[in-house]
Amino acid sequence: MATSAPPIDLSDRMLVTLAAYGLFMINWSLLETVLEVAIAKRVDLHPLEGTIITCGLNFQSRASILRSFLALDQTQDSKDAIALINTITQEASRNAIIHGQVFVHGETLMFVHRRTDQSLIAKTVSLDSDAMSEKGTRLKESIIRLQSLLSVSEEDLHEFGNISLILANRSTTSPKPR
């Protein structure tokens, strides 16, 4: 008979840190969707077609494709959107937070992102509840600004998201092909 592990007693500050981490992850997902919608709108694709083209791309590919489209347009909004995408990417510490190993120290989360080039390299980012909350808040504010610059509305995001929900529901309720 297996015994269960004792419950983890997390401090209130750690719960705040974890909630802020979750909010950051939700906001990052929103950013990726904004990039997908902006690409689809830029080339006049239906949300289903846009989903087919963009869903298999990683973040760097989505950002690169959108920046390339925006660079074709010399408007100030396009230039500002390119700069904002670059700033978001630099400020977010995205690779460490999203792809790193996570270690808990008190109320602080330490993220260790490893990669290989010609040698093994590791980068750490440590964030307490205040820093994690600030990072998530800045990300959300940047996304709102980016949506405005790219003319990506809440309705656009919902329409794009609904395509995924329909596909997910259809695949779980449809019989499997023989």
If you had to describe this structure to a student in words, what would you say it looks like?
The chain has a three-stranded antiparallel β-sheet with strand order 1-2-3. It has helices at 12-42, 47-54, 59-71, 76-91, 94-99, 129-150, 154-173; strands spanning 101-105, 108-116, 120-127. By secondary structure, the protein is α+β, with helices and mostly antiparallel strands. Helix 1 packs parallel to helix 6. It has one domain. A hairpin with a 3-residue loop joins strand 2 and strand 3.
Summed up, the helix count is 7
Mean pLDDT: 89
Q: List SSEs in N-to-C order.
A: HHHHHEEEHH
Distance, first to last CA: 40 Å
Number of strands: 3
- Radius of gyration, taken over Cα atoms and rounded to an integer in Å: 19 Å
Low-confidence runs of at least 5 consecutive residues: none
Number of structural domains: 1
